[in-house]
Amino acid sequence: MTDEPEREEFHHDPVAHAEARADMSVGDLADEYAHSGIGGRTVHEAVDITAEMFGDDDTTVFMGLAGAMVPAGMRAIVADLIRDGYVDALVTTGANLTHDTIEAIGGKHHHGRTGPHDDPEKSERDHDEQLREEGVDRIYNVYLPQEHFAAFESHLRDEVFPPLADEGIVSIRRLTEELGRANAAVNDRESVDESPGIAATAYEEDVPIYCPAVQDSVLGLQSWMYSQTSDFSLDALADMDDLTDQAFEADDAGALVVGGGVPKNYVLQTMLVAPDAYDYGVQLTMDPPQTGGLSGATLDEARSWGKLERAARNASVYADATITLPLVVAAARERIEE
Question: Which residues are tagged catalytic?
Answer without folding.
Answer: 307
